[in-house]
Amino acid sequence: MDHFTMKNGILHAEDVPLPAIAEAVGTPVYVYSQATLERHARVFREGLGALDDPLIVFAVKANPNLAVLRVLQREGFGADVVSGGELRRALAAGMVPDKIIFSGVGKTRAELELGLDTGIAQFNIESREEGRELAELAHARGERARCALRINPDVDAGTHEKISTGKADNKFGVPLHRAADAFAELAALDGLALEGLAIHIGSQLADLTPLETAFEKVGRLLGDLRASGHTITRVDLGGGIGVPYRAGESYPSPADYGAMVARVTRDWGVQLAFEPGRVIAGNAGVLLTRVVRVKSGLSSPFLIVDAAMNDLARPALYGAWHDFEPVAATDQRMTANIVGPICETGDTFATDRDCPALVAGDLAVFRTAGAYGATMASSYNSRGFVAEVLVSGSDFAVVADRIDAGAIMDAERVPEWLG
Ligand code: LLP
Question: Which of 63, 278, 283 is the pocket-test mutation for ligand 1 (most atoms within 8 Å of CB)?
C-alpha cells in the first residue's frame, strides 16, 4: 500500500497535489512519501515479529537520499552499504556504526580502512583474498574486524539475469563447496572476528522458493561449521523481496517472508540480519514528468515526456515496466510509445502501451520509482540530475536540488595546451 492517491481527480502524494510540486520545483522530479516509507518499514519489521531481535539494515543503494535514510533511521533501521560514499551517507543520516553492514565484492583498501575507522557492525567478506586483506589491516591496528563470509549458494533466483547474484558463475560470494575451507582459513586469522555467514541471491524476487532453498543451504553449512568447532553468532539473509510494478500484480508479503524465515531458521540460534531495499522504498516514490509533445508515429503515436533514461534507467537497462498514470484523472485512453528526449531508441519507457490520453503540458507519473530510480541517474545528453522531494502530510521539501548541466560543466577543464 502507498500514499499516492487520486483526490478530487488530482493525484496526490499524501495530502500534497502533485501539480503543486511541479509548479514549485519543476519537472522531472522524484517525489517520495514519508508515510509510505514508514509504513513499509513497520510492515517489514512486523513481518519478522517471530524472530528474536533481528537487525534490519536498509540497502542504501536502493535510495541513498539523506532524507530517506533519516526516515528509516528513525524507524530503527541501520544501513547496508557497498561503498565509502554510502557509508558516509549512512553516518550523515544518523545511523549508528553498530547497525552498519559493509557489503560489496570490490571494497578497496581505503574503504576497508574507512569501515575499520568507523567501527561498523560487520564486513561481509566476499572472497578469501578480501578476508586476508582486511585481516592484515585490522591486525596492524591491533583490532579484530567483525565479519561474515558471503556464500554463493548456486541458486537461481528466477529474476532478471542482471540482478541475479546467487548463481555459481556470478561474481558474488564464496562458492558453497569451498566455503568451509575458506571459513576455516579466515577464522584463524588474528585480524578477523569471523562469526557470521551472509547471503543475497538477487533482487525483485517474485517467489520465496529460491530464497528458502538458499537459506536451507546456509543452514546446512552452519551445522557443518559448528561441527568443526567454529562459532557462528550471526547470519545475514540479504534482501531481494520483489514489489508489484504493475497494478494488480501480487508479490510475497513481508509476513509470508518472515514466516518462511522463522520456519527455516528456527534452530539456528543466531542473530539474523536483513538487507531490504526495494520492498521499503520502491512504491514510496514516483517520477513526476510533463509531456513535451505528442508526435504521430507509424502506428502508435510517441508520447514524449521530459523524463528520460538518464533519470530512470530501469526500462532501458532491464526492460522494466513502470506503470504510467496521469496526474489529472481522465477516462480517455490512447495507445502510445512513451519515450524520453534522449537521442537513442533505448530511451523508451513503454512500447504500444495502453495509457491515459495526454497532450503536451500534461503531468504524469512513473510509479514505483522510489528504489533504483534517482540513484541510478546519469547526466547523459548533458541533462543534469533530477531534483528529489519528500512529502509528509501536507508538507513537502526539496531533499535533493536539481543539478543542472551547467554545474556539471563547471567541474570540467580544457587544458591550456588546447588554447
Ligand atoms: N543486499 C545486497 C548485498 C544487494 O546486492 C542488494 C541489491 C540488496 C541487499 C537489496 O536488494 P533488494 O531488497 O532491493 O532487492 N538496479 C537494480 C537492482 C539491483 C540490486 C542490487 N543489489 C534494479 O533497478 O532493479
Answer: 278
